[in-house]
Amino acid sequence: MRAAVRRRRFGVSPPSAGCTGLGAPFWSLWWLYLASRATTFVVPFLGVYLVSQRDQSVGFAGAALAVVGAGGTLANLVGGRWVDIRGARFTFVVGMLSTAAAIVAMGTAGARPSLLLAAFFLGAAAELFRPAAASLVAQLVLPAERPWAFGILFWAVNLGYSVSAVTGGVLASIDFTLLFVIDAVACFVVGVVGYVLLPPTTSDTRAGTSKTFAPIRDRLFTGYLASWLLYGIVFAQLTTTLPIAMKADGLSNTAVGLVLATNAIGIVVVQPMILVVVRGRPPFAVLTAGVAMTALGASCLIIAQKPWAYGAGVAVWTSGEILVSAVNQGLIAQFAAERVGVYFGAYGVAWGIVFTVAPLAGTQLLRVSHAMLWEVCVACTLAAAVGFDVVRRMVPSRRPAFNVDLGSARRR
Fold first, then answer.
1. Which structural domains are found in the chain, ordered by start?
2. Measured between alpha carbons, how far is residue 30 from residues 12, 37, 80 in Å?
């Protein structure tokens, strides 16, 4: 009853109780997500573009990438607010069309101030759609199916990025202009097709300033987000400090690339199988298991010196990442209830904090010692696991409508 009322409010027809699939609207979103990620070229290659094609310094390229991150952090706040006021489809479409315009601006910007301004616009536009996409899943999919839905959406993201990394490298070797043209056209097409295929979601005309700050006032959610930040800072070491640590141990560029590929390949190949295993399991149990697996992977890295040892640690780490991603956003949707936009916006801001703090903290710990970095990571993940368990225990008394065992009844 609650789910049906909620979907009527957002203008989305609820799936039937006996529905055994995720529905055409969800799969439309899934394909749009895959298409947009598979053609994401400009942001990943922006640093290389600025140095090799625009004759900018490495320092300026780093500053531009930081500006992109700042724009993305702000966009999650704005995007989350727009979802609740204007609707998820509106925000998704505006995000995609704005990204197309931002890519054109980035490719035609001249002097350094123009490049930095375009970088901020690009970061903001490229992240605007994320709260909308997560909110659409929360609105289109029954609560018991959300872990599965968010899991396969995460799989689509990684599959798309795997394609874009290889394709982008090939296109860049031919002509960097191709990256900008294809990325911009793809974003424009995804925005237009998204307007046609995605269901309209009505705005909440009663959404006031109080709802914007609802996640901050929600002590249960802030406790969950604080635990997630501890986990997220460790998670981010995979793409920030880990490559530096491997180079310090004398690994070649090829070996570093192969170790990092273990993560992407593991997600693309293994995640569908793991999702089948955890489908229907209590989400907090899956979350805690994932965080514990991440701690085990970080433990392996304490003594790693050879490529195979790093690869083994990353493989265990990846298993934990898959488990966490399977339930994390579904739990956020439960915390949010009818305020999905601002809650997912707050989650997006947390990502911005993570990728600001993680490289600074990680590199400073690495300067002390290799072992110190991963020992602190283990401690942080264990602390996160304890925090998540505390939240789970507090939920029944403070949020009776929250189903901590969501999905425990397996689908027949």
1. 23-143+174-201 (1.20.1250), 210-406 (1.20.1250.20)
2. 17, 11, 20
